[in-house]
Amino acid sequence: MSQASDGARIGVFICHCGGNISDVVDVKRVAEEIGKLPGVVHSTTHMFVCSDPGQALVETAIKEHNSIG
């Protein structure tokens, strides 16, 4: 696994899973705290990351943060 010290750019996408996760985990707070870690350039939540809109969110974030060629 890459370390932030070697230039890794980390994106974190936390899924609510329609409530299955967010009913027991404060996903917003988790995203906020993870966003403070070294190397994390993007941290967010989405209701269903596995859905087409969720996947589009990931693709857009990658493009916005210039993480791909």
> What's the main sheet like?
2 strands, parallel
Low-confidence stretches: none
> How far do the termini sit from each other?
20 Å
Q: How many helices?
A: 2
Structural class: alpha+beta
String of helices and strands: EHEH
How large, in whole angstroms, is the Cα Rg?
13 Å
Number of strands: 2
Assign a percent range to the helix content: 25-40%
Shape: flat
- In percent terms, what proportion of residues is strand? 15-25%
Structure in words:
This protein has 69 residues and is an alpha+beta fold. Helix content is 30%, strand content 19%. The protein has a two-stranded parallel sheet. Strand 1 (10-15), helix 1 and strand 2 form a beta-alpha-beta unit.
Brief account:
30% of the residues lie in helices and 19% in strands. By secondary structure, the chain is an alpha+beta fold. The protein is flat, with a radius of gyration of 13 Å.
Secondary structure elements and their pairing?
Layout lengths: L9 E6 L11 H8 L5 E7 L5 H13 L5
Parallel strand pairs: 1-2
Notable traits:
single chain; alpha+beta; flat
